Automatic annotation (TrEMBL), chain A:
<protein>
    <submittedName>
        <fullName>Sugar ABC transporter permease</fullName>
    </submittedName>
</protein>
<comment type="similarity">
    <text>Belongs to the binding-protein-dependent transport system permease family.</text>
</comment>
<feature type="transmembrane region" description="Helical">
    <location>
        <begin position="90"/>
        <end position="112"/>
    </location>
</feature>
<feature type="transmembrane region" description="Helical">
    <location>
        <begin position="26"/>
        <end position="45"/>
    </location>
</feature>
<keyword id="KW-0813">Transport</keyword>
<feature type="transmembrane region" description="Helical">
    <location>
        <begin position="227"/>
        <end position="247"/>
    </location>
</feature>
<feature type="transmembrane region" description="Helical">
    <location>
        <begin position="176"/>
        <end position="201"/>
    </location>
</feature>
<keyword id="KW-1003">Cell membrane</keyword>
<dbReference type="InterPro" id="IPR000515">
    <property type="entry name" value="MetI-like"/>
</dbReference>
Automatic annotation (TrEMBL), chain B:
<keyword id="KW-0813">Transport</keyword>
<keyword id="KW-1003">Cell membrane</keyword>
<feature type="transmembrane region" description="Helical">
    <location>
        <begin position="106"/>
        <end position="125"/>
    </location>
</feature>
<protein>
    <submittedName>
        <fullName>Carbohydrate ABC transporter permease</fullName>
    </submittedName>
</protein>
<feature type="transmembrane region" description="Helical">
    <location>
        <begin position="12"/>
        <end position="32"/>
    </location>
</feature>
<keyword id="KW-0472">Membrane</keyword>
<feature type="transmembrane region" description="Helical">
    <location>
        <begin position="179"/>
        <end position="202"/>
    </location>
</feature>
<feature type="transmembrane region" description="Helical">
    <location>
        <begin position="67"/>
        <end position="94"/>
    </location>
</feature>
<feature type="transmembrane region" description="Helical">
    <location>
        <begin position="237"/>
        <end position="257"/>
    </location>
</feature>
Amino acid sequence: MNAEQSLAPAAATSAASRKRRWGPHLWPYLFALPFVLAYAAFQLYPVVYSFVLSLHDWNGISEKTYIGFKNYVQLWTNDPLFIKSLWNTLIMMLMFIPLTLILGLVLAYWTFQLTRGKRLFQTINVLPYITTPVAIGFIFSYLFDWQTGLVNLLLTKFGWLQEGFYWLQDPWGSRAIIALMVIWRNLGYFMIIFMAGMTVIPQDVYEAAKMDGSTGLHTFRKITMPLLRNITVFLVVTSVIGGLQLFDEPKLLYGGWSGSAQVGGPDNTALTVIWKFVDESFISNTRFGYASSIAYSLFVIIVFFSILSYRLTAPKEDKR
Amino acid sequence: MNAAKTAKTLMWICLVVISALSLFPFYIMIVMGTHYNEDLFKGIPIAPGGYLADNLKTVMSADFMGVYLNSLIVSVVSVVLATLTSTLIGYALAKFEFRGRKALQTFVVLTMMVPTQVGLIGYIIEMRNLGVGNTLWPVILVWAAFPFGAFFMVQFIRDSIPNDLLECARIDGCSEPGIFARIVLPIMKPGLATLATLVFLWSWNNYLLPLVTINKSEWYTLPIFISNLGIVHRTDYAARMLALSLTTVPVLILFILGSKTFMKGLTAGAVKG
């Protein structure tokens, strides 16, 4: 009896799958083909070709010379600027990822409880996220300009500072402002992602907690936060991946308002890995082979850090 | 009761302050575009000025419309390409049984993990060899295969299209492309809108790729045009701010009008995962 029951659905699904195969077998392959071809041509081939280039010494014009892993050795042992760019990137990530997470969660929790104006607050705070980074770079480099910037004007006007602070030429000032730009841009995004996670939490969980006498902060810590675990893991891992590729904000902060195209900010304290990569390959130099080894090193770093951040944040039972 | 009330008031104040901080840079940007450049630095520009028309003339004299058109072409063609290839492969993976389906699905997930920057140099040299290095093509073709889109579409089609419907159409003698065009696509409208939003936004705002491929001003897209405007009108900050407003404000208005769909689009990746 029992065996028959379990057999019946199995037979039904296999019949269904046989039915699904009805019609020419070729169609699914044809449907998948455009994506596969486009991926092979415009993404897979360049990725493989870049790896081949990273084993060569090539400036784009003269002959390529095969040099094995010498580019990588040079990069990791004899290029302090690369190490510095990696260090800068990690520092800035440490500045903006935790802050955006905490602020985004608090903002989401507050907005979620509102009976009215929920969508209004959501929409307003997401606007920075959809704004082009060029605009953000310009606006921030104006706001924090030493002479004409609004921030210094206000600070001196209210007498908090004797004279303007040189925000963009200070090593820590530059990093803090880049972190601020990233936070300003991503806060609303984090907020709506957290809110989307909160809508998924069933309402009766909250009601049961209320019945048991749990309120406010306690409910938030014991119920909301654990249930948002997966969302948090998603945000941490994606922002680690995105953070390691930081480029637009620092580049535009130093290529915008003042018109000067200073590479790397003051004493290269704002130089990120991707900026170094782009500069070596397309702006100051055309060292295609060497720059490709930067790209591949970053790829390995990204894989390493995304696994690490996943292990650190994922729920225990998912750990292997 | 009283404590709860003050807590609530505090919460409101915080929310309003943070929202104001979100909006403030936009406000400054718009206001600065309406002033005469030399007046910008005399005080703090808070109220709108009366120099908008003249600034507009300066911006337009630099072929702003042509650049705008370039950006529109790039974004629209990218959206069409990316949604088409993603939907097709999504349909194949979600609704067909065929040899190699599992492998193909794994392939799609793996493609999502590779950052595009890794192949940047190879891609640009490939484009140069194809003879389209300094045109709009490199900025468009990078969207021809959009891994996240394919992944998203597999999930969406699996959940939203009943198998019975497809079977009925087959029994009625509808051809496979006919089923796709007349049954699958219409049901998929919300998913298509979501994906189109994301691709439009990302290609419209893209800075790195056009920066390293395009150096002919006739092919500039908006982000590159504006970041180079500084060199042309070295001192005309007001005109640059106006150009920025003209670039960002239409997108912001579109976003506000369709905020429900867009918000769904932005959160699409997270909630599933």
